[in-house]
Amino acid sequence: MAMVAMDAFSQALTNPLLSEHVWGNDDNRRLAFTDEGLAEIENTQRLREVLERNSAGLGDRFVGMTRPDWQRT
After folding, report:
1. Is residue 10 part of a domain?
2. pLDDT higher for 34 or 19?
3. What is the number of structural domains in the chain?
4. pLDDT tens digits for 22-59?
C-alpha cells in the first residue's frame, strides 16, 4: 500500500488541473473547481489532511513523501 500511495502522490504534481493554465489562472480555476472545492484546497496544509478526509483508520501512522528515518547527508 505504501508503494502505491507514493507513486500516486508523486504523479499528482503532473495533473493537468495543477498546470499554470488552470491553477495559475483565476478564471480557469473557478471553471475547474467549485467554490467549496477551492475552499477545501486552500484550507489544506498537509498530505495527512488529504488522507484523513479520504480514508479510514489512519491513526498515528507516518505520512510523508520520504521514509521517516531519512536524513539529508
Report:
1. no
2. 34
3. 1
4. 888 999 999 999 999 999 999 999 988 988 888 888 88
Supply the range of the domain harboring residue 38: 20-56
Over the chain, what is the mean pLDDT? Answer: 85
- Is this model's pTM higher than 0.70 or not? no
In a domain, 32, yes or no: yes
Backbone angles phi, psi at 16, to 5 degrees: -55, -25
Does 15 map to a domain? no
- On whether residue 71 sits in a domain, the answer given is no
**Per-residue H/E/C for the chain:** CHHHHHHHHHHHCCCHHHCCCCCCCHHHHHHHCCHHHHHHHHHCCCHHHHHHHHCCCCCCCCCCCCCCCCCCC
User: What is the distance between the alpha carbons of residues 44 and 31, in angstroms, rounded to a whole number?
Assistant: 20
What nine digits make up the cell of 73? Answer: 547527508
